[in-house]
Amino acid sequence: MSDRLRPESDSTLVASAAELLSAVREAPPLTHCITNSVVTGFTANVLLALGAAPAMVDIVGEAGLFAGVASGVLINLGTPAPEQRAAALEAADGAASVGTPWVLDPVAIGVLPVRTALAHDLVARRPTAIRGNASEILALAGVSAGGRGVDATDTTDAAADAALALAARHGAVVAVSGPVDLITDGDRVVRIANGHELLTRVTGGGCALGAVMAAFLGAARPSAIAPLTAVAAASLVYTIAAEHAAARASGPGSFAVGLLDALAAVQPHELAAAARVEERAL
User: Fold this and answer.
1) Is the distance from CB of 16 to CB of 282 less than 8 angstroms?
2) Contact 216/24 with Cβ under 8 angstroms?
3) pTM for the complete prediction?
4) If we measure between CA atoms, which residue out of 281, 276, 280 comes closest to residue 8?
5) Any idea what DSSP says for residue 226?
6) What pLDDT, on a 0 to 100 scale, did the predictor assign at position 241?
7) Average pLDDT, stretch 129-136?
8) What is the domain partition of the chain in residue ranges?
9) Which of 16, 98, 108, 251 is found 20 to 30 A from 227 (Cα to Cα)?
10) What is the CATH number of domain 12-281?
């Protein structure tokens, strides 16, 4: 990753990331995940390793109720079977009814019509945050046909204007994942250069990040920490843990296991030295 982005030692973002990491461990946020069948177990294990409490509730008649009592909600469109599609809409409405923060991950939208239509129905319900790769963000903004399945064919910088437009249109924090993550609420932009390419070699590497964002948003609710800061903090902690895991891994398999260990081991006081971030107002 690039070494050009460096925070000050007293960076507000890094300090907030440390505060939220501690909060997740001290009072585990109940994190409601409606996610794809490929990554359910890995996502739950990532949340447990970090200190959060996962719940994979995707049944119609329960999803909306559970979203109302959860600390944060993830809706991921990776494998949108019919009941899960209905549960996703129900959960979004349930979260909105009580102010539960929720994250939309519009996986592989663009040329695939069912999930694309669902993503537009969900984004109209004003998620707290939207997380995707550059091609998914461009497709959700209506300026691209999407990528190659779950793989991005566009750069993070190419999606910057689309991210800003989505943030302004829907009042959401938009996080574009890539070699340098770009996160914006329409007023500020954060770039995070931490992470490792092995995240792209493990099924669920990106999807689990959406769940971590939901957990951090839930942990931020009792405080005055803004959603942009909570989402950026989640990305920072997750990508620093990925670097720690990659340093000890011999390949994707050991990295996947090591990521869980690194998430459990990463300490709030370690973040300042490792963070490569840049934040600016627009």
Assistant:
1) no
2) yes
3) 0.94
4) 276
5) -
6) 98
7) 95
8) 12-281
9) 108
10) 3.40.1190.20
